[in-house]
Amino acid sequence: MANKQNVDAIMSDLKARKFKPVYILMGEEPYYIDRISDYIENRVMSPEERDFNQTVVYGVDTHASQVVDMARRFPMMSEYQVVIVKEAQNVRNWDKLEKYLEKPLETTILVICYKHGTMDSRKKFMKLAAAKGVVYQSDRLRENAIPAFVDDYVRSKNGQIDNKSKQMIADFIGSDLSRITSEIDKVLLSMPDSQRVITPEVVEKEIGISKDYNMFELRSAIIDRDILKANRIVKYLDNNPKTASIYAFLPGLFSFFQNLMVAHYTDRSERGVMTALGYKSEWFVKDYMKALRMFSAMKTMQIIHQIRVIDGKSKGIDNPNTTPGDLLKELVYFILH
Length: 337
Hints:
- By secondary structure, this protein is α/β, with parallel strands linked by helices.
- The chain contains 17 helices and seven strands.
């Protein structure tokens, strides 16, 4: 959770109005980039000050030399001016920042949002930015870290959520943090302040994830070798493709068995598996502990291979007419037999 710790430190300084002259926010995870830049855009100055002292531009319409010219302006009747460059990955020649960053204006807060990639840290302007301001790299959270993210976010909103609900949300939405927080906000808004507890029933009602027919329940059925339950879930999914589909379930199954392979070749104690997989709660490794007894390392490897085969077929590779529902049935049968 290095991302979160860095963001917390940056946000703490921003809230204390300890501003830096430059913020370079980059990386594959846009959620944290947006969180920092949105705070600066909406909270540093009053609405009246923003009219003359805040400039927001987009990379596709901007040159680096123009950004430097904007940064060199002085504020009007305000302590600071803010310059925010969104979609900065579309700007070329960021080296032009070098001379400005040698002596940046203390009255300018320059924010560069470079999403879905990173700037070259070997460049001189990047070294200057790191020395004079903030260079933050926002990496994608590992899937194993998503339940903890869900828990932290719910708690930050003065709510509570149980472990199954965390896993349901993580399985259904994946690593799209912006969508996760949006769905959680929607759920919490529907609840009275005195009863902000998210349960599987609440998740089903407000987000639309069935509490009985979901990735979590299918995985549990597979681990328990409950063939009847597994087939019931697959049949439900086949009959309700708008609720979920093979395309939503394959990544979850692949991730589980990939993690199980890691668990096979580590300290197979509960604590050892927790450490190897990066979980912070025993609850999230109980399925792996059970699966270690159910699936040998060889079978686990065969399942991973079969998931890849089914994934290819679901995309039309060597598959003239098998339906997604039948492909999922084929995969579950392979896993359980």
